[in-house]
Design brief:
Pfam family, one (chain B): Transket_pyr
Strand content of chain B: 15-25%
Structural class of chain A: alpha/beta
Largest sheet of chain A: 5 strands, parallel
Cofactor (chain B): thiamine diphosphate
Distance between the termini of chain A: 21 Å
Number of strands of chain B: 14
Strand order of the largest sheet of chain A: 1-2-3-7-6
CATH class of chain A: Alpha Beta
Helix content of chain A: 25-40%
Radius of gyration of chain A: 18 Å
Distance between the termini of chain B: 23 Å
Family (chain B): Belongs to the transketolase family.
Number of strands of chain A: 7
Number of helices of chain A: 10
Protein name (chain B): Transketolase family protein
Order of helices and strands of chain A: HHHEHHEHEEEHHEHEH
Shape of chain B: globular
CATH class of the largest domain in chain B: Alpha Beta
CATH architecture of chain A: 3-Layer(aba) Sandwich
Number of domains of chain B: 2
InterPro entries (chain B): PDH/Transketolase, THDP-binding, Transketo_C/PFOR_II, Transketolase-like_Pyr-bd, Transketolase_C
Oligomer: heterodimer
Shape of chain A: globular
Largest sheet of chain B: 7 strands, mixed
Radius of gyration of chain B: 19 Å
Chain lengths: 285, 317
């Protein structure tokens, strides 16, 4: 897909995100908006996904012979659901059920509701990298040349389990794994540097044996290029420090931890949607 | 009354080691993981013959559980092995979210459970693991009683699709179940028939229950002895059928009373067939250093105590 088309999809996804969290007055718009360009690029351009003859994506839990993505920071579920729906895993109309009773779109992603596209529950932080390591190892054991991606938050790096996974991946030569950290510098209680300073995450991962890259996460062209380049070394996993702005695309949300887990009210929603105009051919859910 | 004898003693963890080696030969999807305890978990033969399917995780149990969940995506059947303390309490949230809530086909195989770990003391003697694991939706919980039953259970859980917690131990104990047994998950094993009192025992306490049955028989008391090797799903039918005959029961386990087998039996009886129940287990306390035999005596997990409990249960009828 052309970069401009990807940007159009990203705008539609951002509209979904603010509408979804507004509708239930809960959820996490900040990180969702910041990671939108990354996840759209991944699902619409970068990943090799299983499709039928008509080009429709096909979901099975085993993900054999295709790339696979895990969302470790599960609270940015509005983004994940919107991208999955718009990529064709389930009807876009179902986005209106987000966080409501009896919905497949739980507050945090789960396999319990059998929503196509979701392969692991996430929300309790720090677990996704380990799961991605396991899936990457399974691909190696199966002789499957496809790639595994995982997205984590920068605040999430404070969880000890992350560093157990960080140690495991290079040791087991998981070159088929790309881990991406959403480096927005914010977490619930404030700037990450003040809550618990992660300092130089790149140097840490390098010391653990990863190949480390930086990427401007709100620049679609760069995101596509960097993600494609990350699949080079067969024996060394890649860590991408993705510089993003929390709340990207909605001016009053940008750069502040205050919109980590707060929904816009009706008036704020109108303002947000005005800043995210739909392009021809795209529509809201 | 059926008489049980043994010619050999072995540790139940070696039953697991024999089982996983057998699975290595018969099931190419089985992979074995450990967190720096390959020797203690008796993985040597598996590692020697199937090195590509052996995954050393280092001393990082949380990651091991997550890696196991990920391995199932791609069709692997991971057996994650370590001591029971590090396989449950240390990684409860990882098991809860990445394994049970996600309903992944992960087998958590835990050795050195309970007091019989011995001299290492209470830091390693977990007595709460069955309770934690049985509370988790989707989890199957199994606590076999000897080498042969542990081996059979290891083979059986590979055929079961879903999360399993398999608990075994370190001390050598009599081998009294058949080598060729078919292990059916959730189906209790009727050890001996009787009408005076039911004895529901699990793990290392099954042999003690058999000895207690012999002591009771000498006094003319016929105990109905049932081995509850599967803590969850519990064979409620076997429990109720037995107590219908006997009218009273004893539970026996190497575990905390809170959350253990006795607690599950009490629920079944209270809801369906109220009857006196005496419970043999550890009473809301940590263990300590000592030999396995010394500890089992000090904490009252012996045939003598089962006999006392049986008589007390009968007196309350």
């Amino acid at each position: 897909m052309e970069i401009q088309q990807l940007e159009h999809v990203a705008t539609a996804v951002r509209r979904d995100i603010v509408r979804m969290v507004n509708a239930v007055n809960s959820g996490h718009p900040g990180g969702s908006l910041g990671c939108t360009d990354f996840m759209v690029a991944l699902y619409f351009e970068v990943m090799n996904l299983k499709t039928d003859d008509g080009g429709q994506v096909v979901f099975d839990m085993d993900a054999r012979d295709e790339d696979v993505f895990f969302l470790s920071n599960g609270h940015i579920s509005p983004l994940f659901y919107s991208v999955l729906a718009r990529r064709g895993y389930f009807p876009i109309s179902e986005l209106s059920t987000f966080r409501k009773l009896d919905s497949r779109l739980q507050g945090h992603p789960t396999t319990a509701e059998h929503l196509p596209g979701v392969r692991i529950a996430s929300g309790s932080l720090g677990q996704g990298l380990s799961v991605a390591c396991g899936a990457a190892l399974a691909k190696k054991l199966n002789g499957d040349p496809n790639h595994v991606y995982v997205l984590m938050g920068d605040g999430e790096q404070q969880e000890g389990q992350v560093w157990e996974g960080a140690m495991f991946a290079p040791h087991h030569k998981l070159g088929n794994l790309t881990a991406v950290i959403d480096l927005n510098g914010q977490q619930i209680d404030g700037p990450t540097s003040l809550v618990m300073n992660n300092r130089d995450l790149g140097a840490k991962y390098e010391a653990f044996g990863w190949h480390v890259e930086h990427m401007e996460g709100n620049n679609m062209a760069e995101v596509v290029t960097k993600l494609k380049e990350s699949r080079q070394d067969p024996d060394v996993p890649t860590l991408i420090l993705m510089h993003t702005e929390m709340g990207y695309g909605v001016d009053y949300m940008m750069g502040s931890h205050k919109w980590h887990g707060v929904a816009p009210n009706a008036e704020q929603l109108v303002t947000a949607l005005n800043q995210l105009p739909l392009t021809a051919g795209m529509s809201d859910y | 009354m059926k008489k049980y004898e043994y010619t050999e003693k072995k540790d139940t963890r070696s039953g697991f080691g024999a089982g996983i080696y057998e699975l290595g030969k018969t099931n190419p999807n089985v992979v074995a993981l450990t967190a720096d305890l390959a020797g203690s978990l008796k993985l040597e033969n598996f590692i020697k013959d199937f090195p590509d399917r052996y995954i050393q995780c280092g001393i990082a149990e949380a990651n091991m559980i997550g890696v196991s969940a990920g391995l199932t995506i791609g069709g692997k059947i991971p057996f994650a092995t370590t001591f029971a303390n590090f396989a449950t309490g240390r990684v409860y949230d990882q098991i809860r979210q990445s394994v049970c809530y996600s309903n992944k086909n992960v087998k958590i195989c835990a050795s050195h459970a309970g007091l019989t770990l011995g001299e290492d003391g209470a830091t390693h003697q977990i007595l709460e693991d069955l309770g934690m694991m049985k509370m988790l939706p989707n989890m199957t919980v199994i606590n076999p009683c000897d080498f042969n039953q542990t081996k059979a259970a290891t083979l059986a859980i590979a055929e079961h699709d879903g999360p399993v917690y398999l608990r075994f131990g370190r001390p050598v104990v009599p081998i009294f179940t058949p080598a060729d047994q078919k292990f059916v998950i959730g189906k209790a094993w009727h050890v001996n028939e009787g009408t005076a009192v039911s004895i529901f025992a699990t793990g290392h306490l099954v042999w003690e229950a058999i000895k207690a049955g012999e002591m009771l028989a000498e006094e003319g008391i016929e105990a109905d002895i049932i081995n509850i090797h599967t803590i969850k799903p519990l064979d409620e039918e076997a429990i109720l059928e037995s107590v219908k005959k006997t009218g009273c029961a004893v539970s026996a386990e190497e575990h905390m009373l809170n959350g253990g087998l006795g607690d599950s039996v009490a629920q079944v009886l209270a809801r369906n067939l109220p009857a006196p129940l005496e419970m043999i287990g550890v009473h809301d306390t940590f263990g300590e250093s000592g030999t396995p035999d010394q500890l089992m005596i000090k904490y009252g997990l012996t045939a003598d105590k089962i006999v006392e409990a049986a008589k007390k249960a009968m007196s309350r009828k």
